[in-house]
Design goal:
245 residues; mainly alpha; Cytochrome Bc1 Complex, Chain D, domain 2; three-stranded mixed sheet; two-stranded antiparallel sheet; globular; binds heme C
Length: 245
Amino acid sequence: MIHRAVAALILAAGVAAASELRPSRDFLSPELRALQDDPSRHPGWLWVEDGEALWQRGERSCQSCHGGIGSMAGVATRYPAVAPDGALLNLEGRIERCRTQQQNEAPFGTESDALLSLTAAIAQSSRGLPMRVATDGPAASFIEQGRRFYETRQGQLNLACGQCHDENAGRRLRGDVISNGLGTGYPAYRLEWNTLGSLHRRLRACSLGVRATQFPLGSPEYLALELFLASRAAGLPVEAPGLRR
Ligand code: HEC
Ligand code: HEC
């Protein structure tokens, strides 16, 4: 069944130029788009509020060094980024560094409520701002790695990311409208998950969809891919927290 749906898509494929990339919200149903825009009805805002509370909690709080959460405006548009020690950090990784190195606490852990909440609160303070990750210097080789991942056919279905997210964007697949596969809405509240989840969790779902290897949350493979996706999204707005089917 899956094979037939996918085969039909591939037959219908045309090639989309990078300039045609559209914000993820453009592919949402009018209902979901309205929910995404309305904090009072968007369940993801519960995490944003928790994150803002966490930001201020404790003696050595995030706030004690950084000031109010508003000081994080624009930060999410620049992540993933390469740290001075050469490590590629997404927003979650950057937060975990402050958690362990500045607060001297144990890491929150991938997909923990605390980490998702802080990530959502920080990303939310960039909502509407255009993505602009660094692509030169030490970022360049990570982007190349991410691009290779994106362009390589994978899994039993032997599909590259772009065969769905470029060539078939706007078409339906199993009840979804295929978007351009950007990470700008993450962390996102997904109705299917019934909770907020990270971009890497979503990437695992796409890997599973083509019966390819699912890499661990926070793995180097998905980090490089995340940076490549962010570089593709240059100029498009941060939508986090997104709302998805
Ligand atoms: C003791 C001070 C201190 C505390 C506490 C602290 N940070 Fe930081 N944080 C820093 C410093 C210093 C940097 C810049 C590091 C560098 O040069 O890259 C930073 C950088 C960051 C950045 C990246 C900012 C940018 O512009 O790229 C984020 C995001 C961040 N911190 C989040 C947090 C969060 C969330 C917490 C609480 C869980 C926290 N920090 C706690 C000192 C702190
Ligand atoms: C068989 C088609 C298919 C392939 C191949 C595929 N995806 Fe997806 N992907 C989907 C569908 C369907 C969705 C859910 C609808 C949407 O948001 O595009 C999705 C969602 C996403 C999203 C979330 C977008 C959002 O705003 O919520 C990202 C990011 C993504 N894919 C990236 C990738 C990457 C990277 C690859 C390659 C490793 C990939 N996908 C491979 C079909 C595919």
